[in-house]
Specification:
Layout lengths: L27 E5 L4 E3 L6 E8 L4 E10 L4 E9 L9 E6 L7 E2 L5 E3 L4 E8 L8 E3 L9 E9 L11 E2 L12 E7 L4 E6 L27 E5 L2 E6 L7 E6 L5 E5 L4 E5 L5 E5 L15 E6 L5 E6 L5 E6 L5 E5 L12 E8 L5 E7 L4 E5 L5 E6 L4 E7 L2 E8 L4 E6 L4 E4 L5 E7 L2 E6 L5 E6 L1
Antiparallel strand pairs: 1-11, 2-10, 3-9, 4-7, 4-8, 4-11, 5-6, 5-9, 12-35, 13-14, 14-15, 15-16, 17-18, 18-19, 19-20, 21-22, 22-23, 23-24, 25-26, 26-27, 27-28, 29-30, 30-31, 31-32, 33-34, 34-35
Length: 453
């Protein structure tokens, strides 16, 4: 019988529902339990370390549990990439004297990949022991257990490398085109591109207060649309200065973000301007001004647009599609949960529970943050390199990463954590129609690639 001062953690709760669970995976529990070693008595702290290489399928960890007996202090598991054994990419840790239930990771869910190194640490105190303590499998032994609950993942997306094509335009070496963004319409099978012409964005393009120095507009048509090899739209001469992204809303209207103008602008498909958000050439932070906006995505019902106001304000705005009037905003500069360091791209998808999810490429923090439609953080998907672009293909989110050390781009499957393509130097923007993936590479002449998945 516990004393009145001791908190009772025993018992359990049962929830009953007539709604079918939306979870689409078979749960597994991986148990790591080193045994048959000894602990010397009379020690304030003893650290026992074990490691092994993970050889299973990609394993998505959604919860964990630790277990030991009276001498246990803390159990910890660190996951290392096989190519970086210095800095762990994932860590779970918990006192074994706390209630030994599963801890749901929520936004901190992670994937263990084949070849990852798992390093387990169990910490003990034998200060009150006079005899050797044995660690083993029975109730009379001390223990060193970590349980990982989750599900295995099979990689389903693969690039058909022998079918890589330079889609629509191959402008490598051209001085007149630099494609920086691509959008695709599933309904009409139309592909839209946005290019900077001869404009180069360098460290000398803006003042210290983020004002564009050379206000020379692009004389070619930066906005183009294609149906197969046929050009179906071409407009925008004299209207744009430093293009960054292009998006098409469910009604077929075209939205562009221009970091030079500090504006997001909405147009008809033929180039008639409907409205602009932000004051031209004036960077700002209030409800009517932007500063280097980066991308736009749309709610599933088509009523709202999500804008990443990226390089200066580090925030997300939600606005009415018909008016551009702000509904809410969230985020600021930083590295904490819900903060950003250059929110560079945004996509909207249907979550497993049927609710809308807003995924934001938090570029310089090397992660993807997923929110609900009101800005509440749902989960974080950490990546190895800065995240430039996002696209959803089926139920999978692909991330365009840039490894600056080796001057290479990587298209990463965020479900498995595995790269599926690394031949594009900078995947600045991505879009998809079915299993056709379009990638805009904004360097080396501004190429647009098309891949079959």
């Amino acid at each position: 019988m516990p004393s009145p001062e001791m908190k009772d953690f025993s018992g359990f709760a049962i929830g009953i529902s007539n709604k079918m669970d939306d979870f689409k995976h078979d749960l597994e529990c991986h148990v790591y339990a080193p045994q048959f070693f000894k602990l010397d008595p009379g020690k304030e702290r003893i650290w026992i370390n074990f490691e092994e290489t993970f050889y299973g399928k990609h394993f998505r960890v959604i919860a964990f549990r630790v277990h030991a007996h009276a001498r246990g202090v803390e159990n910890r598991l660190e996951v290392f990439d096989k190519d970086d054994l210095v800095r762990p990419k994932h860590v779970v840790s918990r006192s074994v004297q706390l209630p030994q239930s599963f801890v749901v990771l929520g936004p901190l869910e992670f994937t263990i990949q084949p070849g990852d190194l798992l390093q387990m640490t169990c910490i003990y105190s034998t200060i009150h022991e006079e005899n050797t303590v044995y660690v083993g499998p029975t109730k009379n032994d001390e223990m060193c257990n970590i349980y990982l609950m989750g599900f295995s993942i099979s990689t389903t997306l693969q690039i058909q490398k022998n079918r890589i094509t330079e889609s629509i335009k191959d402008n490598a070496g051209s001085a007149n085109v630099q494609i920086v963004s691509v959008a695709a319409e599933e309904k009409t099978k139309t592909v839209w591109t946005f290019d900077r012409g001869i404009i180069k964005w360098t460290d000398l393009s803006f003042t210290n207060s983020n004002e564009l120095i050379d206000k020379t507009s692009i004389k070619t048509n930066p906005v183009m649309a294609f149906d197969g090899d046929t050009t179906v739209a071409s407009w925008g001469s004299g209207m744009f200065f430093v293009p960054h992204s292009i998006s098409v809303d469910p009604n077929g209207d075209v939205w562009v973000a221009d970091v030079g103008l500090h504006q997001v602008l909405k147009y008809t498909r033929t180039g008639k301007r409907l409205f602009a958000i932000g004051t031209p050439f004036v960077p700002g932070h209030d409800t009517k001004q932007l500063c280097h906006p980066t991308d736009v995505a749309f709610s599933l019902d088509g009523k709202f647009a999500y804008i990443t106001d990226g390089y200066c304000n580090h925030r997300v705005l939600k606005v009415h599609v018909d008016t551009g009037i702000k509904v809410l905003e969230w985020g600021n500069g930083g590295r904490g949960d819900g903060q950003f360091n250059v929110p560079h791209a945004v996509i909207v998808s249907n979550g497993a529970d049927g609710n809308e999810e807003v995924a934001v490429a938090d570029r310089e923090n090397c992660r993807i943050q997923v929110f609900d439609s009101t800005g509440n953080l749902i989960r974080i998907l950490n990546q190895k390199f800065p995240v430039y672009s996002l696209v959803q293909v089926g139920s999978t989110i692909l991330a365009g990463l840039v490894d600056r050390t080796h001057s290479r781009g990587i298209i990463n499957d965020t479900v498995t954590g595995s790269p599926i393509e690394n031949s594009i130097r900078e995947p600045h923007s991505m879009a998809a129609i079915g299993k056709q993936l379009y990638v805009a590479q904004s360097v080396d002449g501004g190429k647009l690639f098309k891949f079959d998945l």
